[in-house]
TrEMBL record:
Keywords: NADP, Oxidoreductase, Signal. Belongs to the short-chain dehydrogenases/reductases (SDR) family. PANTHER family: RETINOL DEHYDROGENASE, SHORT-CHAIN DEHYDROGENASE-RELATED. It holds the Pfam family adh_short. This is Uncharacterized protein. Residues 1-19 form the signal peptide. GO terms for molecular function: oxidoreductase activity. SUPFAM superfamilies: NAD(P)-binding Rossmann-fold domains (SSF51735).
Length: 333
């Protein structure tokens, strides 16, 4: 599968359903009371994760927002409380750094010590177009380490509580959300280049100036889609549903490493709230049931397509292969 075909696919989706979506069909008004339910949203100190956390809290849920910065997290918690003073829910900061695997278990243990249920985990945090020289604490390419490896380890530590919650929660309501991107369409053939990730994502996927970081971002976001499909297959008997949303083309701090998008992107990007609604659909919509387990979600809340070779690879065992690969390469954390 050529890079040009991947770019063509992404552009086609950009100019059709994913780039110019219809009005949201699932919004705050469609969400019932969430009293007693517990949610974790990573990267929720700003951007679309912040928008989702606000909605969940406004509906009386207990919400954990996970982030690296204590100051940013505390400010986000205060702002959400101030915007929704009548909420009977709770909101707390869970401090962790997905680019440093040693921080994840202590954070997960903190949540597990306080909660007896967990209704959804939204793996929202991520980095885009970071310099290719940047590495995670364990030596991974920063994008793959933050967007893929860190969320996988966090999910592993929280899995048992999700399984227990699914035993008594309403059918199909316990969810795991792995955030993807429209860039997933330009990932390598089959979605994952194993030669690249065996080198911790450091070997180049392209020698063209400025292209390598985007291909690595695309691979990491496609990996999130593959993770959702692998999760759906591996844990299909638990009652938990996993999905992978492209939240949309949005005005957020995710663009901080890309001068081009900062310079030009504001003319065709949408407010962050719309991405929060895509995630809201993925997290709560009753339209998502077991028949849609492992699905891709597109803006602003619809089941959508993925490149055919990636789907074929996943359906022929590739999704479970990748899940098991991650398991093997994150032992000890």
């Amino acid at each position: 599968m050529s890079l040009l075909y991947g770019i063509y696919t992404a552009l086609w989706q950009l100019v059709t359903s994913e780039g110019f979506p219809p009005k949201p069909g699932f919004e705050e008004k469609d969400v019932s009371d969430l009293s007693g339910k517990v949610y974790l949203v990573t990267g929720a100190t700003g951007g679309i994760g912040f928008e989702l956390a606000k909605i969940l809290y406004s509906k009386n849920a207990k919400v954990y927002i996970a982030g690296r910065s204590k100051d940013n997290g505390t400010a986000a918690v205060t702002k959400i409380k101030d915007e929704h003073p009548k909420s009977d829910g709770g909101i707390e900061l869970l401090q962790l750094d997905l680019s440093d695997l040693t921080t994840i278990k202590p954070a997960a243990d903190e949540l597990l010590s306080q909660e007896r249920r967990l209704d959804a985990v939204v793996h929202n945090a991520g980095v885009m177009a970071a310099p290719t020289s940047w590495r995670s604490a364990q030596g991974w390419d920063l994008q793959f380490g933050t967007n893929v490896v860190g969320p996988f380890v966090l999910q592993r530590h929280l899995q048992n509580l999700l399984v227990e919650t699914a035993k008594f929660a309403p059918k199909d309501s316990v969810r795991v959300v792995f955030l993807s991107s429209i860039c997933a369409h330009i990932a390598p053939t089959g979605g994952i280049n194993y030669e690249n990730i065996e080198g911790k994502g450091i070997p180049p996927l392209s020698n063209l100036p400025g292209v390598d970081t985007w291909l690595k971002y695309a691979q990491s976001k496609c990996a999130n889609t593959v993770m959702a499909k692998g999760y759906a297959e591996k844990y299909k008997d638990t009652g938990i549903i996993a999905v992978s949303p492209n939240p949309g083309n949005l005005k957020t701090d995710l663009m901080r490493h890309s001068f081009l998008l900062r310079a030009l992107g504001w003319t065709f990007l949408y407010p962050a709230r719309y991405g929060g609604l895509t995630e809201l659909y993925a997290t709560l919509s009753p339209e998502i049931d077991q028949s849609k387990n492992g699905s891709v979600i597109i803006p602003w809340g619809r089941v959508g397509p993925m490149r055919s070779d990636i789907i074929d690879t996943c359906n022929s065992g590739g999704a479970l292969k990748f899940w098991n690969w991650l398991e093997e390469h994150t032992q000890g954390f």
